[in-house]
Design brief:
Structural class: alpha/beta
CATH topology: Rossmann fold
CATH superfamily: P-loop containing nucleotide triphosphate hydrolases
CATH architecture: 3-Layer(aba) Sandwich
Helix content: 40-55%
Shape: globular
Largest sheet: 7 strands, mixed
Number of strands: 7
Number of helices: 11
Order of helices and strands: EHEHHEEHHEHEHEHHHH
Bound molecules: adenosine-5'-triphosphate, magnesium ion
Radius of gyration: 17 Å
Number of domains: 1
Strand content: 5-15%
């Protein structure tokens, strides 16, 4: 059995659909029969909540995994996909880890024992390029970058690429961008079209062919503790992430 493919979802800009993409792409992989673990590396705990788990009720969380080397199995809850849960205490992990040796590799170390149990490990990251995100980039084989096309920020993407180069030089030589995903696309506006064109001019075939359009389903589903694939299985929102999963699975074949 080959070890899991580890994908980090990163963009230091907030609200670009990192969490939404982590969960729904993971659910789409699971629908295809893959064994999937999602890791919540964001102290906001949005991924944890979006599978119907209350972060305030957790006895142990990713904080303990990263800081106290608690086994990751102890913080995994089985839902649509398996979720390694987080709560607000994770915000203290950056400080707690700061003075430790190998602080960038805490997540990589934690994943090793479960790597053979899954086909995919999908890591949601916070909207910053701090130590939690660096841990995710160090543990990952690939990075998926969701980009909101309405407020396109090329400078933000360049900053992310610089961080990734630094990680490649010092920590994880083979990590690379799997693709840039246009999210929250409002296909009625000319602005969205132009934004995608600029993205393609700058990043070429690194931009996924899949696009995630704006729909209220993405806000509704997490309230019910579900992915959009379960909440509205035949809707366009679910189809968008199934198409993305196919694009990634076919590309890897
Ligand atoms: N395609 C979409 N259409 C409409 N709303 C969406 C879509 N994708 C995500 N959203 C909504 O946009 C908001 C931000 O999404 P999400 O939480 O996934 O972003 P994020 O990048 O993880 O944010 P943060 O940086 O705070 O972690 C959420 O309310 C989510 O429900
Ligand atoms: Mg998020």
């Amino acid at each position: 059995m080959s070890p899991a493919r580890v994908i980090a979802f990163a963009n230091q800009k907030g609200g670009v659909a990192k969490t939404t993409t982590t969960l729904n792409l993971a659910a789409a992989f699971a629908e295809e029969g893959h064994r999937v673990l999602c890791i919540d590396m964001d102290p906001q705990g949005n991924l944890t909540m979006s599978q119907g788990i209350d972060p305030d009720t957790l006895e142990r969380s990713m904080y303990d995994v990263l800081v106290h080397a608690t086994s990751i199995r102890e913080v995994i809850r089985k839902r649509e996909i398996d979720v390694a849960c987080s709560s607000i205490d994770l915000a203290g992990a950056e400080i707690a880890l700061a003075a430790t040796i190998g602080r960038e590799r805490a997540l990589e170390r934690a994943l090793k024992p479960v790597s053979d149990d899954y086909d995919f490990i999908c890591i949601d990251t916070p909207p910053s390029l701090g130590l939690l995100t660096i841990n995710a980039l160090t543990a990952a084989h690939k990075v998926i970058v969701p980009v909101q096309c309405e407020y396109l920020s090329m400078r933000g993407l360049i900053q992310l690429q610089n961080t990734l180069s630094m990680v490649r030089e010092n920590l994880n030589p083979t990590v690379d961008i799997q693709g840039i995903l246009p999210t929250l696309v409002d296909s009625r506006t000319i602005h969205a079209k132009e934004a995608i064109e600029i993205l393609e001019e700058n990043f070429g075939d690194r931009v996924f062919a899949s696009r995630i359009r704006k729909t209220v389903r993405f806000a509704e589903a997490p309230v019910k503790g579900m992915s959009v694939l379960r909440y509205d299985p035949s809707g366009t929102a679910a189809k968008a992430y199934r198409d993305l999963a196919k694009e990634i699975l076919d590309g890897a074949a």
